Amino acid sequence: MQKREFAIKMLLLLLPLLPNLVSQVQSVKCTTNNPVHVQYEWHETGDLVIGAMVSHLYYIVPELFFKKHPSQVVIDTPLVVTKFYQHILALVFAIDEINENPRMLPNVSLGFHIYDSYYDSKITYQNTLDLIFKSHHFVPNYRCGIQKNVIGIIGGLSSDTSWCMANILGLFKIPQISYGSFEPAINDGTKIPSFYRMVPNEDLQYRGIILLLLHFGWKWVGLITPANEAGERFLQTIEKLFFQNGICSAFTERVEFNLNYKSNKLEMIDKRVLFSTLTSYKANAVLVYGESRFIIWLSNILSLMEFTQLLFPREKSHEGKVWITTAQIDFILDSLQKIIDINIRMYHGAISFAIHFKEIHSFKDFLQSIRPHWTDTDGFIKDFWEDAFSCSLSNATLSTNMCTGEEMLESLLAPYFEMSMTGHSYNIYNAVYALAHALNSKHLGRTIHKGREAMEKISPQYVEPWQLHSFLQRISFNNSAGDEIALNENGELAVGLDITNLVTFPNRSYIRVKVGRLDPQAPPGKELTINEDRIKWHRAFTQFCCYDCDPCPEGMISNEKDMETCVSCPADQYPNNDQDLCIPKIPNFLSFDETLAIVSTSSALLFSLITILVLGIFIKHRNTAIVKANNRSLTYVLLISLLLCFLSSLLFIGKPNKVTCLLRQNAFGIVFSVALSSILAKTILVVLAFMATKPGTNIRKWVGKELAYSIVFSSSIVQVGICVLWLATSPPFPDVDMHSVMGEIIFLCNEGSVLIFYCVLGYMGFQATVSFTVAFVARKLPDTFNEAKFITFSMLVFCSVWLSFIPTYLSTRGKYMVAVEIFSIFASGAGLLACIFAPKCYIIVVRPDLNKREQLAQRKV
Q1: For the chain, first and last CA: distance in Å?
Q2: Residue 263 in 3-state DSSP?
Q3: Residue of higher predicted confidence among 553 and 652
Q4: CATH class label, 595-859
Q5: Pair 286, 277: CB distance under 8 Å
Q6: Every domain range in the chain assigned CATH 3.40.50.2300
Q7: Yes or no: domain 202-356+496-534 corresponds to CATH 3.40.50.2300
Q8: Position 453 confidence tier, pLDDT thresholds 50, 70, 90
Q9: Per CATH, which fold does 38-201+421-486 belong to?
Q10: Contact 271, 212 (CB under 8 A)
Q11: Global pTM?
Q12: In 10 A of CB 247, how many CB atoms?
């Protein structure tokens, strides 16, 4: 455990320290007089030459900025994907077999020229041109020096590399056979007829993915793809198929996985994004699409997650996830990950689509014979050997030992090299034989055409690459492993895919176990076969399941487990807490037996009794000075209006019906409007009474009961008109709301026209504003019993209550909305009653000595 923790910590510590790998290399100008020496190539001469473009090495390059001249700094020593050295050896092995076979291409030797793409499009273009034209000098469209006689080129591993090569080779009609590209866009028979590939169409893999997920019942799947054109094409296709088959994507991550230097620090783009995604989602099945090098990047992320799990045990980790990978991906680690001790065991139990392959007789013996000095022309073996065995072939240092040259390839772990032929190596082997059989078919056809029985030597000078297309398009042969190799009309290998299970071991190695087969020739429904007994799942599985069910959306239920869809409850029912049963909704209205209704009813009766008591006091003392001075008639009208306001609140209690719905808002609006009209009339009369005392004025004749009644009537009739219009056009009516509150049916009065309802409130607000303005102006007039100052304060209370009412009313539902309006009626009515009448009742009841005409005369200012 301590060793593993130390290794993971080293991963985090070494990443920012990698700039010591960077060295300065002078750029080389390529001219015909100054030949370019390519270090990483392997060239063996022959009568005819087969070219190849492999992906074995890659560089970490510095980030370029436009503020200064592009940097010439590169890493002098590339990172080596040691496992892919087998691709090179597979090609050499196949050519050696053909040269030693007297029945294949008699009297003709095959040579080869192998370049590396470095996973870089610019270098791929250059090296493709080198394969065609360069011997000692590079002159496009000219063959200078030794004739190479390239009759076909094998490559590349990825669709990007294959596409770059096809752009050039298609112009010269040179056969190109890709050994790893699945992308359909590359294979366009009308656009690039010289392109062939030793893999099936990618549509087969899409179909296989769906069949695999449905077989295991995995319908909650995460998707991880590279952020490029191929990744987008994959997502567009697979997500459509997911939808058609009832499979959901838990998350979709498009990631950049290139390594770049930035400010002398090695950065893995988007590592935090993917880390957060993998630890946040419940989906345990994760489908990974991309090329093999993506696994290098993903391994770093998973190692970081594992380290986080050690530090924070409660954090979710990647354990328990099933990794599903496409056939383009091989489980590899590079030389850098070997140094920092990345372990492949995190992929234990992974299910992979794999290129079909069989063991080739004597290939393992061939690998066992490989030694670092077995040939002088292999430009790849030095870096491979030193990285694979952590030694030096040239000089030892403090960190490395000298290589003995007797190290054995079979001692290497599977992530770095396999002794069994991999799927990509198998494709290269078959591609070499396809070119050889095409040459053989051309030679036999020429011999038969001449009518000669003896085998004739092929003349290299008469062999043109374009002549092989007619033979490759109908190629069909059995290889040494017994597999039939045949291309269909699209230049694709007519073969299925294997399903493999990755089984890892404590020593950081693994084996790939074939657990199934995807056969496009099988009858419908039987294309996929899986032997579940051979599958070794991740050790974190106790009860295997690759997805967690999400709860149904609010308002829906599922009465069975693992259902794909949820169902809605009837309108009058709602789901229980477990969302597996619908239960009746509870009625919601302010019934008389509820505490809130009892308090409201008691308050209405209490305020009504207080109002009646005040009215009785004023009637009993109607002939006293204070009652006469404040206009008895308007006082009675105001008190009766307040009484009706308090009683109108009772219409809001109980289950709404047609009568209460028609009356509640209209009655409330009219009686409050009458009350406000009375207050306005009282205020205006105070102002006119003061103005009438001035000499020479004619206003005295206007002061009287007729004016007061006119003000009350004219001001109230407007509100009455609004309410009549409301009842005539869109009256309120009983209604139910089944959706606003979960589990409840709200019985309410639908206001009919919301606009008119707010017009009623708005007109009350207008009345209150006018009354407040007039009262505020008259509050300091010299009158002993001037009530304008009390009206001013009462209007402040009234306006505050109803301004607060509107947002509160709109934010509540059901019986609490009704309670808000009842409270507003009580608060505003009680405010008017207390502010206007409390001081007068105090004088009438407690200080009757001040309620005299003599006191009025003495206290006038």
Answers
A1: 98
A2: coil
A3: 652
A4: mainly alpha
A5: no
A6: 38-201+421-486, 202-356+496-534
A7: yes
A8: very low
A9: Rossmann fold (3.40.50)
A10: no
A11: 0.61
A12: 21
